[in-house]
Amino acid sequence: MKNLSVAILLILGVILSSTGFARSIAKFEMDLYDSERERPIKLNIWYAAKADCNSELKCINSKTEKPKVAVMSHGAMGSVQSMNWLAYPLAAQGYVVVGVNHFGESWVYGRENINPAAALKLWERPKDISIALDKLAQQSPFDQTLDLENILAVGFSSGGSTVLALAGAEYQYELAQKHCEENASTDLSCRYTQESHLPELPQEAYGSFKDHRITQLIALDPAAGHITKPESLKSIDSKVLVFGLENGDFLPIEHHAAFYQEHIPGSQLETLKGNEGHFVFQDKCQLDIKVHGIPLCEDKSGVNRDSTHARSIGRIMGFLAKNQ
């Protein structure tokens, strides 16, 4: 846990003590392969580990017969390894957290496999997650049967759109042109289309990716609102919490986070009203990197990323407690 902030470690301490027994959070990697698409799927998995494990399998420290599962999806060109700030607290609450890295976008596959155009192939992402869940059911690395019928899905940016697609959101890519002609100066997600252009779209790109195993959903400053069919959102029956930024620097809230909340029945919108930027939902970091001109690691004046994470974790845990 060396990358976690003091604030998050304090929260972990409260969570651990409230469970009534000590948990040691472990993390490991798992490699899967989708032969149909000829596509690798690398997972990062966090879980509460038993200290006295005598099995060749991973031993889960759980009070329930079937441990809960949370899946995670990262933003464009990122990795779930930048979401430790939320993965560890969820694991401390008893979730087996399955982070899915998307091939072509994530650096975990090697920089030689990064293809900026992959960020536009949104239809590949939800399939990565559904297939990962299928394979975990078939070849689980754990000593207990996981609850794979009531899954929490968490996504950041493009990952937020991904988990919404798993809940039933459908894309209409043709909407991008008009939106970006009018909003390119403020909606930086338009840069991906400008730089790579939409690939030739297969029929499956327009279909439904709904996975009925997803029953709860958290979208952190989600992208792709401008190309999502409003009518598809009205059919979502998962419990949904959306985080948006009132003064965001990447995705205008009215076209993305607030748009989703407006059209998803019963969904909740948590709006951060300070100067928080898009990448506040990533782990604290020291890299001198900018994404379309926006610093990945440097927050605006008055923004404390540790505090934002702590407040967000509190809101998320409250949401989950009310929607068990």
Topology record:
Blueprint: H1 6-18, E1 24-34, E2 39-49, E3 68-73, H2 84-92, E4 95-101, H3 124-138, E5 151-156, H4 158-167, H5 175-183, H6 190-196, E6 214-220, H7 230-233, E7 239-245, H8 257-263, E8 268-272, E9 290-291, E10 294-295, H9 305-322
Parallel strand pairs: 3-4, 3-5, 5-6, 6-7, 7-8
Antiparallel strand pairs: 1-2, 2-4, 9-10
Helix pairs in contact: 1-2, 1-9
GO molecular function: chlorophyllase activity
Keywords: Hydrolase
GO biological process, one term: chlorophyll catabolic process
Largest sheet: 8 strands, mixed
Q: Roughly what fraction of the amino acids lie in strands?
A: 15-25%
CATH top level?
Answer: Alpha Beta
Number of helical runs? 9
CATH architecture: 3-Layer(aba) Sandwich
CATH topology, which one? Rossmann fold
Mean pLDDT: 93
What's the structural domain tally? 1
Gross morphology is: globular
Number of strands: 10
Organism: Pseudoteredinibacter isoporae
Keywords: Hydrolase
GO molecular function, one term: chlorophyllase activity
Protein name: Putative dienelactone hydrolase
